[in-house]
Write a structure and sequence with these properties.
Blueprint: H1 16-24, E1 31-34, E2 39-42, H2 52-66
Antiparallel strand pairs: 1-2
Length: about 70
Amino acid sequence: MAPEGTRKNVPVWKTGFYYIAKQAGVPFIPVIFNYKTKTVTTEKPIYVTDEAVNDIKNSCTKMQKER
């Protein structure tokens, strides 16, 4: 599922994926599409907690460092 629905960099992630994963009791798996190099990278599953803002912020920060 790709809830972001954009191909450009965005400063803030939308949160629908988080609440879907939380309700279903499953982790979400970040996927990075690099259109410049035509590569797709998957990250380790991230298990959600009751701290939505921190979970998403930590995930964004981690992924930006790994780019």
